[in-house]
Amino acid sequence: MRITVTVNGEQHTRDVEPRLLLVHFLRDELGLTGTHWGCDTSNCGVCAVWLDGTPVKSCTVLAVMADGHEVRTVEGLAHGAELDPVQQGFVACHGLQCGFCTPGMMMTARWLLDHNADPSEEDIRKAISGQVCRCTGYENIVRSIRWAAEHGGGARTADAATESEPGREEVRA
């Protein structure tokens, strides 16, 4: 099937098999290896990206489902050479650790801060509850997201949706 997907603001047209997962499309077809591939069952959340502004686990979305839609990956967080405050927070507060869960955590954190510029620790923990980190015990990740909120990280995208209660949605499949 021929699909056209806008990824991080750039349109890509490819012929793909109908069974190709979005995570493999991003990594193998487009070379965007920042999106990690983990469990393939929607349990770990390392593959979280945005589909039309909503976090999804790309291991449970077919690439053909993204046809005509917009995808944002961790590579799309930075603004030119300037790191997003979420990225800066993960560096400043050692939220990176091994780095395997980091892209998914960052995408979820960015979405949370776009919808809740000053989340509580409970809000942050709930937002990242659909993701697994085996290194940090989540403390450094929570600190990283708080750091981003305190350093201008809230509501960076002009089109952040507000139809749901801020900080109350998990990454969906």
TrEMBL record:
<keyword id="KW-0560">Oxidoreductase</keyword>
<protein>
    <submittedName>
        <fullName>(2Fe-2S)-binding protein</fullName>
    </submittedName>
</protein>
<keyword id="KW-0479">Metal-binding</keyword>
<keyword id="KW-0001">2Fe-2S</keyword>
<dbReference type="GO" id="GO:0051537">
    <property type="term" value="F:2 iron, 2 sulfur cluster binding"/>
</dbReference>
<dbReference type="InterPro" id="IPR036884">
    <property type="entry name" value="2Fe-2S-bd_dom_sf"/>
</dbReference>
<dbReference type="InterPro" id="IPR051452">
    <property type="entry name" value="Diverse_Oxidoreductases"/>
</dbReference>
<dbReference type="InterPro" id="IPR001041">
    <property type="entry name" value="2Fe-2S_ferredoxin-type"/>
</dbReference>
<dbReference type="Pfam" id="PF00111">
    <property type="entry name" value="Fer2"/>
</dbReference>
<dbReference type="InterPro" id="IPR012675">
    <property type="entry name" value="Beta-grasp_dom_sf"/>
</dbReference>
<feature type="region of interest" description="Disordered">
    <location>
        <begin position="152"/>
        <end position="173"/>
    </location>
</feature>
<dbReference type="GO" id="GO:0016491">
    <property type="term" value="F:oxidoreductase activity"/>
</dbReference>
<dbReference type="GO" id="GO:0046872">
    <property type="term" value="F:metal ion binding"/>
</dbReference>
<feature type="domain" description="2Fe-2S ferredoxin-type">
    <location>
        <begin position="1"/>
        <end position="77"/>
    </location>
</feature>
<dbReference type="Pfam" id="PF01799">
    <property type="entry name" value="Fer2_2"/>
</dbReference>
<dbReference type="InterPro" id="IPR002888">
    <property type="entry name" value="2Fe-2S-bd"/>
</dbReference>
<keyword id="KW-0408">Iron</keyword>
<comment type="pathway">
    <text>Alkaloid degradation; nicotine degradation.</text>
</comment>
<dbReference type="InterPro" id="IPR036010">
    <property type="entry name" value="2Fe-2S_ferredoxin-like_sf"/>
</dbReference>
<keyword id="KW-0411">Iron-sulfur</keyword>
